Amino acid sequence: MKKINCLSLLIIFSLVFSVNISAQLFESKKGVAYALGLNMGFASFHASVALGETEKPGGRIGRMGGSFNLSNGALKDALKHASSINESGIVLDLEKLKYYSTFTLSWEFDSDPSIFKSTILPFYNDVVSIRESFTAVLARSSENLTNAYTLGVNIAIAEGQATVGEAARQVVYICLTNAKTYAQSLNLNLTTLNECILLAGGTTPMADIYAKIVSLRSSYQSSF
After folding, report:
1. How large is the angle between the packed helices 206-221 and 143-162, nearest 10 degrees?
2. pLDDT tens per residue, range 53-107
3. pTM for the whole thing?
4. In a domain, 17, yes or no
5. Are 36 and 152 in contact (CB under 8 A)?
6. How far is CA 187 from CA 30, 47, 147, 219, 220, in A?
7. What is the C-alpha separation between 196 and 209, in angstroms, rounded?
8. Residue 86 located in a structural domain
9. Is the domain of 49 the same as that of 60?
């Protein structure tokens, strides 16, 4: 009986130790999760810009192609952060990110934007799918990592949309309001975020709000 009890205690101790180690690893990855969220948010924004363009690509690279390149660049950075997250034992599916890290577009069809869009649409859908799948996987592993990741996504989309101008004011306001929920959960300073929300809900020029969001993004990055 004593041997069984000792064995049971050893198993329990091992499980508790393992859980504590995992929790510490997850906690150390909050900044990485935030950076991953930023990259996925920027990738989503730029992919949506490429998809929404009506101008011909023109030359080798026009506005459509430029936006695609920015989105794809963000995905390449996201791959580095996602790989780092996986070092903690979480299993994010990296296959699509690896695929796009070597993906290039042909510019031979720049006289026909519809052909370009037929390539951009599945790309945009993939970006959104990757972004949402990361949220789902993180949610099964760590609340703090999920909050940090989703905070990054919302801050990045708000920053990107702020460059669009007045037409995107409501989207910026919604993203910033969403971000506040996650920032609160992470016990981050809300002063600048609250100011951004207040300005986005008013009539302050979007260029001024954009500058404050850029500052907010950087300050949160240094908070982890």
Report:
1. 150
2. 765 545 445 677 788 889 999 999 999 999 999 999 999 999 999 999 888 765 5
3. 0.85
4. no
5. yes
6. 12, 31, 11, 14, 11
7. 6
8. yes
9. yes
Kindly provide the residue ranges of all beta strands, DSSP E only, lying in the chain, ordered along the sequence: none
Separation between Cα atoms, residue 44 and residue 38, nearest integer Å: 10
Looking at residue 23, what is its pLDDT? Answer: 63
pLDDT tens track for 136-153: 999 999 999 999 999 999
Q: For the packed helices 206-221 and 169-185, what is the interaxial angle rounded to 10 degrees?
A: 20
44 touches 127 (CB < 8 A)? yes
The amino acid at 156: A
How many Cβ atoms sit within 10 Å of the Cβ of residue 84? 15
* pLDDT of amino acid 133: 97
Span 194-212, average pLDDT: 97
The token duo for 57 is 């690509």
**Whether residue 87 is found in the same domain as residue 57:** yes
Domain carrying residue 206: 142-224
- Amino acid sitting at position 216: L
Same-domain check for residues 52 and 86: yes
157 and 190, same domain (yes or no): yes
| Largest pairwise CA distance in the chain | 81
